[in-house]
Amino acid sequence: MTSRTDLLSALSGIVGERYVLTTAEDTAPYATDWKRSTTGVPACVVRPASTAQVAAIVRLCGDSGISIVPQGGNTGLAAGAIPDTTGSQVVLSLNRMQTIRSLDPIGMTVEVEAGAILQTVREKAASMDRMLPIAIAAEGSATVGGVIATNAGGLNVLRYGMTRDITLGLEVVLADGSVSNGLRHLRKDNAGYDWKQWFIGSEGTLGIVTAAVLRLVSVPRYSVTALLSVSSLEAAISLFGHAQQEIGEALSAFELISANSLDLVSRHAHLKPPITAGDWFILLEGASSLSGLRDAAEGVLAGGFESGWVIDGVVAESEAQARQLWALREHVTEAEARDGPSLKHDISVSLTHLREFLDDAEAALVDAAPGAGLNIFGHLGDGNLHYNVLFRPDHDQKAINRIVHDAVIKHGGSISAEHGLGQYRVDEWLRLAPESDLRLASTLKTALDPSGLLNPGKILPFSLLHTKAIRGVN
Amino acid sequence: MTSRTDLLSALSGIVGERYVLTTAEDTAPYATDWKRSTTGVPACVVRPASTAQVAAIVRLCGDSGISIVPQGGNTGLAAGAIPDTTGSQVVLSLNRMQTIRSLDPIGMTVEVEAGAILQTVREKAASMDRMLPIAIAAEGSATVGGVIATNAGGLNVLRYGMTRDITLGLEVVLADGSVSNGLRHLRKDNAGYDWKQWFIGSEGTLGIVTAAVLRLVSVPRYSVTALLSVSSLEAAISLFGHAQQEIGEALSAFELISANSLDLVSRHAHLKPPITAGDWFILLEGASSLSGLRDAAEGVLAGGFESGWVIDGVVAESEAQARQLWALREHVTEAEARDGPSLKHDISVSLTHLREFLDDAEAALVDAAPGAGLNIFGHLGDGNLHYNVLFRPDHDQKAINRIVHDAVIKHGGSISAEHGLGQYRVDEWLRLAPESDLRLASTLKTALDPSGLLNPGKILPFSLLHTKAIRGVN
């Protein structure tokens, strides 16, 4: 084991002294998560400028038995990029590696370094009449490496899939400091195991993504946005089926927002929906290069009225109106924060079981946390809801988390749909995951990071790795 | 090591005597591949009826040190499901496990056993007005497990992605005989490592897929098919960019067929294109729920004429005409077989480098195999070509394979786009893959199948696994 002075000196030797941050002031932006709910104590923050420097840092830390916490834009919603409080973990920030290496409008790919800001890449693509189809709220600071490490979802998963589906190639620094270059610009490649899949969504616990090739798509020529209020969740689900039939793959978003969520927006952001309320609202978006999109959207609305699913609805007449409708959805999270403390759950359940899940969870919460409020909204089209509980000081927060997650598992769902496990959900995952999932996870972690120095505590805590799971496959 | 008699007796104890095939006559259909170019000698063929039986077989073989070759519909194009000729490997056929466990038209998923025939599942989905978007020529005999094991591509990858993108959940029997159940019906699930990704496309070398959950999509209401002839590959690529702009995500196929390919079809299947020939033909298909599709397709044609890319073209006026146009494409493989022996290459190259690849490969072939013919066709939209060489008896077949694959690698492509490595391409992959790819592959194989009993010789030969690659990460 190296002394701290030796470590800092060796790191400075790799990246230059000014890129090794050590004071509390300098490291603060890297030590607290975006939601300001978790603060760690890094040994230091190191900011490499190249893949070779990342590799050298990993080798150095490996030789000294020092843990590394990779970090991108630090916009994660589960504190997966925040170190623990021991002061022994090195935060490796990719934020100097922002080069867009190439953008190929014919092959429809972009090759970027991991620290590139999502919005910058999207703008570069747009300037060449192409689109990078990853749309998340934090695009102004989130990095490519971060969205890959968490397999980020977002608003357009319904149409384009998760980040995994957009990722064509990766360059990864492995735990032994070697570099695996899989930066292929290919839509189809079945030669050998597709190892990039192992690293996508692995939260920096198996290797450090230093660059990626992402898929681009053509920019849709037409778009349509509508806000509807519906009488029930069943009506919302029926309307979704109808919309899929009418709009097909051009349906790019189908967001569910509870009446309670829009009450919060009305009270704290002073924005009101321009239509009569129901129990739920739907924000529907379509995008296509084909004419006939707007007709199809109006057909959805008409069919919804006829079937009695829709109470009221409006189709945006202009880009400005569409933005106003989206603003209602986009202010939900901020309004929730202004209202008071909340427990966030990032869950997915098949649409077929969503009603039963909501009933079970709410019934249990009424008993365990009387008076708690609910702020439920999310990507209904993906079965992904943000099920947030507005608790009171006397409520047992851990019990609330357990109730929501137990109901999710009971109905075949996932407790981590698009934000990652990070620090927030790792205990719950370990509590609820099937034994076989844990064994397989432990097998891969042990194979790729035998010393457990890459983002320890995330996904598989070190103790589990070296004790409980070392039966079975291993 | 068990005697053969003991083995057969123990297998019979698991599945019943009639499902352990031992005579040359009974095992013949399982011992030769679909192309009739590779014949193995199985110890026996065992046909389990359930996941529990598969697990018991794997445990039995594991205890006895006997290798298992999993097999689905035996329609693979690279002999990945054919045993070697030692007579020591057990073929485990999934063809009795055909149950469609559930089809959920609301949640848009289907859960099936691995031996289910693709066409049966597609028809079941169609009967409920849903579509399983995996379209391959062998759908009448290919199984769900087989398309997952090879991460099959096909005609609609452009729009819906590879089998990987359609697979939501897997049930896998691991090398130790334990069962990992990941049959989740979720579009989004980021809880822990997404281990199903490891097994998709792994050709039965890491575990045996026994069941899967696949994603369904809505059935497009409109479709359009057009055949065009173009002046050059550059024109074809420009037309593809134009079609993406005009038709967007509704573009479901963009097939390239060389004039030589259609000559073969004309000579051997007596089908002729109804338009004036160019060097290349394009078969374009769009499918959408939105009106405006046909207008957009005609716009592509008109734009193509204006730009000088298109020589001639026709848009099908009826379903029957569309089928006639597709028949030209579908007869290419059969016409090639009737013409004489050929060497098939299943390659992908970025569209940006496709011209240089074709030039390099052809120049080298003219030198090394003078008089060889070329039959080039495939999925241009994915950069995936079937680059088949019609060789003469005096040509060096191994040299031809090397020339084509060297040119592929030179231009950043893949030597295995959608058919798998199987037995045909594994040597070439080992020759050409980056050292880091081999090391990572070896790491996973060693971790999941330490005794190397699952489909040995495919992807990573046993010798490599236990010698060469055991440096580095391991």
Automatic annotation (TrEMBL), chains A, B:
Coiled-coil ranges (or none): none
Keywords: FAD, Flavoprotein
Entry-linked Gene3D superfamilies: 3.30.465.10, 3.30.70.2190, 3.30.70.2740, Uridine Diphospho-n-acetylenolpyruvylglucosamine Reductase, domain 2 (3.30.43.10), Vanillyl-alcohol Oxidase, Chain A, domain 4 (1.10.45.10)
InterPro entries per record: FAD-bd_oxidored_4_C, FAD-bd_PCMH, FAD-bd_PCMH-like_sf, FAD-bd_PCMH_sub1, FAD-bd_PCMH_sub2, FAD-linked_Oxase-like_C, FAD-oxidored/transferase_4, Oxid_FAD_bind_N
One Pfam family per UniProt: FAD-oxidase_C
BP terms from Gene Ontology: respiratory electron transport chain
Location of the FAD-binding PCMH-type domain: 38-219
Annotated SUPFAM superfamilies: FAD-binding/transporter-associated domain-like (SSF56176), FAD-linked oxidases, C-terminal domain (SSF55103)
Gene Ontology molecular-function annotations: catalytic activity; FAD binding
Keyword Flavoprotein: yes
Keyword Glycoprotein: no
Stated family: Belongs to the FAD-binding oxidoreductase/transferase type 4 family.
Protein name: FAD linked oxidase domain protein
